[in-house]
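Q: What residues go here?
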């Protein structure tokens, strides 16, 4: 088995490709020969030693793969063998071979490439939970998607477009034309202007009904202020903690700046806040499976459109981390063995 290993906390150069024994599936598991694995911002946080859920270093991270089932554990039907699948992995996904419980594995539609299939699980399930499950976005409402050009951002645009909502999104100006083609109605350049006044101008000062925010810290407070009455703030990341070199001190500073939302205050202004972390839903496989089935049905219907920005070989993992960390990607970054 070949896998990407975070040897210690640090820069992308701490990543190494190492060899190991192939895993054997336990009862209720299948083994997948991986053709493509997703790269997520959580993986970058783990490499920097800033992701509390990550296994002890050295370790292999990765939450999603696509590939072919080549072995099954006891109690698993042999019909799984040779099936092309996408799967959620509780770390260990950035390897050429993984074992996964069948509840976390989904048949890959024939129209999806392995790279596209690996781009779906984390990004689209996160966006689904943010917009549909907890955000309850409706066709007569509006949503502001921060980091609209990222993997979750593009997934959210697909879902919000299908719902019929009005979509605002923050992204660097070079991504605006592409995002308009994807369905974003109002792109906002956050790098050269303060996005708040721009959103006020576009909404006549009303704000929006839903905001998805992966940035964290005091940025949550700013997003909250731009919700209209009955608006909801969906928080799903703390990317601000990894800016620059990133350190545990930066986590502390971010935490200090994070607002506390008191129930009395929420009641007085008729607003809501909620948090999303797909990595803490392993005990809810039935729910996640229903969401994934709806997403796959959306692909078959043509409105789920996973976009792979760039593919890196395992040996290029450091370059992939650097590319994503510098916000070079528009959509998903994929690693292939």
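A:
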């Amino acid at each position: 088995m070949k896998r990407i290993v975070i040897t210690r906390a640090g820069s992308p150069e701490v990543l190494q490709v190492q060899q190991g024994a192939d895993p054997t599936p336990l009862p209720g598991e299948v083994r997948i020969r991986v053709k493509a694995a997703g790269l997520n911002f959580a993986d970058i946080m783990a490499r920097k030693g800033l992701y509390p859920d990550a296994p002890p270093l050295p370790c292999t991270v990765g939450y999603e793969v696509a590939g072919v089932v080549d072995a099954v554990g006891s109690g698993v039907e042999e019909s799984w063998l040779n099936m092309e699948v996408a799967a959620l992995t509780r770390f260990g996904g950035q390897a050429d071979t993984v074992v996964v419980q069948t509840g976390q594995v989904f048949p890959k539609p024939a129209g999806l490439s392995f790279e596209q299939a690996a781009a779906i699980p984390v990004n689209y399930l996160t966006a689904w939970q943010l917009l549909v499950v907890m955000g309850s976005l409706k066709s007569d409402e509006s949503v502001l998607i921060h980091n609209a050009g990222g993997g979750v951002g593009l997934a959210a645009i697909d879902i919000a477009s299908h719902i019929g909502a009005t979509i605002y999104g923050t992204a660097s100006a070079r991504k605006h034309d592409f995002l308009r083609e994807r369905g974003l109605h109002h792109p906002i350049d956050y790098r050269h202007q303060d996005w708040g006044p721009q959103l006020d101008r576009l909404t006549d000062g009303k704000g929006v009904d839903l905001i998805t925010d992966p940035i964290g810290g005091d940025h949550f407070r700013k997003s909250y202020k731009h919700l209209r009455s009955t608006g909801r703030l969906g928080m799903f990341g703390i990317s601000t903690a990894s800016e620059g070199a990133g350190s545990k001190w930066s986590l502390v500073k971010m935490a200090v700046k994070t607002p506390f939302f008191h129930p009395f205050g929420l009641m007085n202004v008729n607003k809501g806040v909620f948090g999303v972390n797909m990595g803490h839903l392993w005990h809810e496989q039935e729910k996640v499976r229903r969401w994934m089935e709806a997403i796959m049905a959306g692909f078959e219907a043509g409105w789920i459109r996973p976009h792979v920005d760039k593919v890196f070989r395992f040996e290029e993992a450091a370059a992939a981390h650097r590319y994503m960390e510098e916000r070079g990607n528009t959509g998903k970054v994929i690693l292939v063995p």
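A: Context that may help when evaluating the design: Residues 12 and 159 are 33 Å apart (CA to CA). The radius of gyration is 20 Å.
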